[in-house]
Amino acid sequence: MIPKEILKKIRHIEIRTTRLVNDLFGGEYVSVFKGQGIEFADVREYVPGDDIRTIDWNVTARSDRPFVKKFVEERELTVIFLVDMSGSQYFGTGQRLKSEVAAEITALLAFSAVQNHDKTGLLISTDQVEKFVPVKKGKTHVLRVVREILYYQPKGKKTHLASAFQYLHNFLTRMSVIFVISDFQDQGFEKPLKILSQRHDVIAIHLKDRREEEMPNVGLLELEDRETGEVALVDTSDKNLRKKYQEAARVRNENLARMFKMFRIDKIEIGAEGSYVEPLMKFFKLREKRT
Using CA atoms, how far apart are residues 287 and 267, in angstroms rounded to an integer? Predict the structure, then answer.
């Protein structure tokens, strides 16, 4: 049975994200993520000026009058949320953990998809593919996706994004929009990500916490690695240590940005301690200019 606290969180997320979809993101979403072509809809009688290449010769032959084919945009999309639920996602120095921010972002984008009759699915990943929720339409399905992110108890704590990318490459038969929501604290996933991005529209949502990039000066501090369980006592008053910590984070972020750019993958950076609305709106507006 799902705890009342989780149900309350789900309800809060539903109310907040539905309002954002209605006020801000609905139109932005549909203008950015368009259909994947056109499909035949009907025929109508030819009128002067119509493209003769659209004439339906079979119908024309039966009716003795020229008819042309009518086409509509194939609007329906498949949207997959690949959510990293490794140990490092259960960290946050603000009011929310990165995993909670991931649930809200997923809800916002999934409700936008539902509003436009798109199908959504979820893949939960740690150092293995832990769970796949098949694609479906509808609000009830979106709430299930959010519930899984908030309530699911991962078996693994480490990160292995390569296995998740490989899984989706093998599983998805048609072009899909894939949101990868992770802190990307992993290595060796470049090749499978490149292969996945060649067939699908992959968008990287990079969740970050300021304390992963900047160490505060608070004296002796015991730190635990959420993925390995290793504990270390560090002297945060050491200026050189803080500088090395900050430099390592900078290099890591630059390498990620370089890789995403090389693979033509859009990246959205979102701080767990701040608002995710502004970065997402910025992404939508920049991407709309390119379409």
Answer: 11
- Which conformational region is residue 207 in: left (phi greater than 0), alpha (psi within -120 to 50 degrees), or beta? beta
Write 151-155 long-range contacts (CB < 8 A, 24+). 151/2, 151/3, 151/6, 152/85, 152/124, 154/85, 154/86, 154/124, 154/126, 154/130, 155/126, 155/128, 155/130
Which distant-in-sequence residues (6+ apart) come within 8 Å of 147 by Cβ? Answer: 2, 6, 10
Q: What is the mean pLDDT for each group of 10 consecutive residues in the chain (291 residues)?
A: 80 85 74 60 76 81 82 71 95 89 92 88 97 93 91 94 97 93 95 96 95 92 89 93 95 96 96 90 86 64
pLDDT value for 244: 95
Measure the CA–CA gap between 149 and 226, rounded to whole angstroms: 18
Q: Is 264 left (phi over 0), alpha (psi -120 to 50) or beta?
A: left
Q: Name the β-bridge partners of 269.
A: 206
What angle, 0 to 180 degrees and rounded to 10, lies between the N-to-C axes of helices 139-151 and 4-20?
A: 130
Look at residue 215 in the predicted model and tell me its pLDDT: 92
Question: Which tokens belong to 56?
Answer: 């339906």
Q: Give this prediction's pTM.
A: 0.82
Q: Which domains are present in the chain?
A: 4-33+75-214+258-285 (3.40.50.410), 38-73 (no CATH)
